[in-house]
């Protein structure tokens, strides 16, 4: 049975990736130690030498992409349930589209935040950490953080709404009274995406990139 | 006071004279060991004009040594027996010469006997070692004869003539580091050779002048505390819209170059190397000061040293470049960088926007410095300014890693999709979808 499990494509992929990752970390760590070069491991250097633009654009990219993943996942779950349930109970089709709309809203939050954050990215003329200045670094990191915030919130919100919507569709197919009650659960699920957006707006409120 | 390194790279100076050397800073001249003693005496019965011995601590340079030798050889015998040891320092005599009341332990009985029987020996305790290195050449010039490298066996077969000058060189080893013989045994062996040679010379009854010295000091730079190496050093000043350069490399680095280091100092926490020049870009006195400091940093829990400032002092003005932001290394190691400049990927920045340093440019090529924990006159491990990964590589790696993770996640999702296969019947009839009207 172990052999069957090992033959699984997933298992090979994940074992391989994990092994490569941890062995790299182990060997790099051992080399740093035995050559007494631990002093060259400098996190501050990494954070100040990498460009704030990289962080900002990672934030923008993650904002939209993670939100879309959440929305897509939610729609995929809900959609398949609606279509499946609609075979035997066609009346559920129109009413349950509202679950799809809740999932889609998550993607809309994502794109709005991505546009808002990308508008904050401006040119600056410094090349060294001193000339770039603390404010530009703060801007870069804030944009990255905001993108992560909105992205992950929307990701989980979308999945949540999708699963609840799927349950709503199937319950509705059985008994039409249940739909409205389950919709309340979906509304709560949807609120968490909104929280992510609000926090991301707060994070980027003080961002001012440029000279 | 300069030590040599192998000449390997081309530099701004043409390859023909491409010998780039290190510079060592000598401080506390009281117990410096960068000099070689030289002892000169004549055979019995000949007396030299008494020459004024050098004052205590004075280092005899090449010119002065030539004068001493000239005075001795003009009057004394022109048959010179030169005992040239590989390395020698005054410490060899104090440690092994029975100088602390233990005459019986001395390893130099023959030498002492010769000096006592000679009427006016000349003892120069500190001859700068480039000068002692060149003593053969100087004797060759003064005697106008070529040196003959000999040992006691070949000497006994030689017939010497009191009228014609001769330069007989006896090379004596000083192999410190060969574990077979200690320094004491080697010096004792050398003294035996001296004794044999002097007795052979006595049997030949030819008057001679004997010199005992070495090519380089045996104890290297225990007092050196700052080491600086560079392939090129230049300064430029902005005058009426144009940059005027001045190459300081020939007056700082190179074989036989002795830059003036007055004002340099070092202690446990601060080190200052001062290079003094004359007539640089129209300034009569010009100083380049490298100020370093070391202290303990609690977050990394180790001592680091920084090059706090590179200052140019001229005509009472001081132009300061800050370097502590970029030029640093753990205190036990040296710092090395291919290019330390104030204008090209600058590691040195003017102290403020109004500082005179804004009108200057300083450039070191292939720069290595160590201001603390210098041992044995050599650099410790060099912490290079270039890391293994550049910032660009790190950024690329980070984003690539992120995308690989996304790809992995996507692959995982797709691979776990299942299609409906409950009603699959591979052996049954194929589904037919008829065309509707």
Question: Can you offer a commentary on this structure?
Answer:
Chain B: Residues 1-29 form the signal peptide. The complex is a heterodimer of chains A (211) and B (437). With 211 residues, chain A is an all-alpha fold. Chain A is 82% helix and 0% strand. Chain A folds into 2 domains: 1-40, no CATH class; 44-204, lithium bound rotor ring of v- atpase (Four Helix Bundle (Hemerythrin (Met), subunit A)). Chain A contains 9 helices and no strands. With 437 residues, chain B is an alpha+beta fold. In chain B, strands 1, 2, 9, 10, 11, 18, 20 and 21 form an 8-stranded mixed β-sheet that branches. In chain B, strands 12, 13, 14, 15, 16, 17 and 19 form a 7-stranded antiparallel β-sheet that branches. Chain B is elongated, with a radius of gyration of 34 Å. The interface between A and B is medium-sized, with 16 and 21 residues.
Tally of distinct domains of chain B? 2
Rg of chain B, rounded, reads 34 Å
Mean pLDDT across all residues of chain B, rounded? 83
The N- and C-terminal alpha carbons of chain A lie at a distance of 63 Å
Strand content of chain A: under 5%
Backbone shape of chain B: elongated
| Helicity level of chain A | over 70%
Report the total helices of chain A.
9
SSE run of chain A: HHHHHHHHH
- Strand portion of chain B: 25-35%
Radius of gyration of chain A: 23 Å
- The parts of chain B where pLDDT drops under 50 for at least 5 residues are 1-33
Comma- or semicolon-separated keywords:
heterodimer; A: 211 residues; mainly alpha; Four Helix Bundle (Hemerythrin (Met), subunit A); 2 domains; 9 helices; B: 437 residues; alpha+beta; Porin; seven-stranded antiparallel beta sheet; 23% helix
How would the blueprint of this fold be written?
The complex is a heterodimer of chains A (211) and B (437).
Chain A: H1 2-7, H2 9-34, H3 43-49, H4 52-88, H5 92-95, H6 97-118, H7 129-132, H8 134-174, H9 178-203
Helix pairs in contact in A: 4-6, 4-8, 6-8, 6-9, 8-9
Chain B: E1 2-3, E2 22-24, E3 35-42, H1 62-75, E4 79-87, H2 90-96, H3 109-117, E5 122-128, H4 129-133, H5 135-143, E6 147-150, H6 152-156, E7 166-172, H7 183-204, E8 209-216, E9 227-229, E10 232-239, E11 242-247, H8 249-252, E12 265-266, E13 270-280, E14 283-297, E15 302-314, E16 317-322, E17 328-330, E18 334-341, E19 349-350, E20 360-370, E21 382-384, H9 391-415
Parallel strand pairs in B: 4-7, 4-8, 6-7, 18-21
Antiparallel strand pairs in B: 1-2, 2-9, 3-5, 3-8, 9-20, 10-11, 10-20, 12-13, 13-14, 14-15, 15-16, 15-17, 16-19, 18-20
Helix pairs in contact in B: 1-5, 3-7
């Amino acid at each position: 049975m172990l052999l069957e499990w090992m033959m699984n494509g997933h298992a090979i992929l994940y074992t391989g990736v994990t092994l490569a990752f941890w062995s790299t970390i182990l060997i790099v760590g051992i080399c740093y130690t035995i050559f007494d070069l631990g002093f060259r491991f400098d996190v501050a250097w990494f954070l100040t030498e990498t460009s704030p633009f990289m962080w900002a654009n990672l934030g923008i990219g993650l904002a939209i992409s993670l939100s879309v993943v959440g929305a897509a996942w939610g729609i995929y779950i809900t959609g398949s349930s609606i279509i499946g349930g609609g075979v035997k109970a066609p009346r559920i089709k129109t009413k349950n589209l509202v679950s799809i709309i809740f999932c889609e809203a998550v993607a809309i939050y994502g794109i709005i935040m991505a546009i808002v954050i990308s508008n904050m990215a401006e040119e600056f003329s410094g090349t060294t950490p001193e000339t770039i200045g603390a404010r530009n670094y703060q801007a870069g990191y804030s944009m990255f953080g905001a993108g992560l915030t909105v992205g992950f919130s929307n990701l989980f919100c979308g999945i949540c709404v999708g699963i609840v919507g799927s349950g709503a569709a199937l319950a509705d197919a059985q008994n039409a009274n249940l739909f409205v009650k389950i919709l309340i659960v979906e509304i709560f699920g949807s609120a968490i995406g909104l929280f992510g957006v609000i926090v991301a707006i707060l994070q980027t409120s003080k961002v001012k990139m440029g000279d | 006071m300069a030590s040599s390194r192998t000449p390997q790279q081309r530099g701004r100076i043409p390859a023909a004279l491409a010998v780039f050397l290190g510079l060592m800073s000598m401080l506390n001249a009281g117990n410096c060991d960068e000099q070689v003693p030289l002892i000169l005496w004549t055979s019995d019965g000949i007396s030299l004009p008494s020459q004024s011995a050098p004052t205590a601590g004075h280092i005899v340079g090449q010119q002065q040594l030539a004068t001493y030798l000239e005075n001795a050889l003009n009057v004394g015998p022109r048959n010179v027996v030169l005992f040239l040891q590989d390395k020698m320092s005054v410490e060899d005599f104090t440690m092994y010469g029975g100088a602390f009341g233990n005459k019986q332990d001395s390893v130099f009985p023959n030498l002492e006997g010769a000096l006592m029987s000679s009427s006016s020996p000349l003892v120069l305790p500190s001859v700068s070692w480039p000068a002692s290195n060149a003593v053969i050449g100087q004797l060759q010039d003064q005697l106008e004869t070529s040196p003959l490298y000999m040992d006691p066996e070949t000497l006994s077969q030689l017939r010497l003539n009191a009228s014609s000058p001769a330069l007989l060189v006896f090379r004596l080893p000083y192999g410190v580091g060969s574990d077979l013989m200690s320094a004491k045994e080697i010096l004792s062996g050398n003294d035996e050779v001296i004794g044999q040679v002097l007795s052979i010379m006595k049997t030949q009854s030819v008057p001679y002048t004997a010199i005992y010295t070495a090519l380089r000091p045996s104890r290297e730079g225990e007092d050196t505390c700052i080491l600086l190496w560079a392939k090129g050093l230049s300064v430029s000043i902005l005058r009426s819209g144009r940059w005027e350069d001045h190459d300081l490399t020939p007056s700082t680095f190179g074989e036989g170059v002795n830059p003036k280091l007055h004002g340099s100092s070092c202690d446990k926490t601060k080190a200052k190397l001062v290079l003094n020049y004359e007539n640089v870009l129209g300034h009569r006195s010009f100083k380049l000061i490298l100020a370093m400091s070391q202290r303990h940093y609690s977050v990394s829990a180790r001592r680091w040293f920084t090059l706090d400032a590179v200052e140019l002092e001229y005509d009472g003005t001081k132009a300061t470049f800050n370097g502590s932001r970029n030029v640093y290394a753990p205190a036990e190691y040296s710092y090395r960088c291919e290019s330390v400049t104030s204008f090209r990927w600058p590691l040195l920045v003017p102290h403020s926007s109004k500082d005179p340093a804004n009108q200057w440019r300083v450039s070191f090529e292939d720069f290595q410095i160590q201001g603390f924990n210098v041992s044995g006159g050599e650099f410790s491990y060099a912490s290079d300014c270039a890391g293994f990964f550049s910032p660009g590589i790190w950024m690329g790696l980070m984003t690539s890693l992120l995308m690989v993770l996304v790809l992995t996640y996507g692959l995982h999702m797709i691979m776990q999709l299942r299609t409906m296969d409950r009603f699959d019947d591979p052996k049954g009839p194929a589904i037919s979808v008829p065309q509707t009207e």
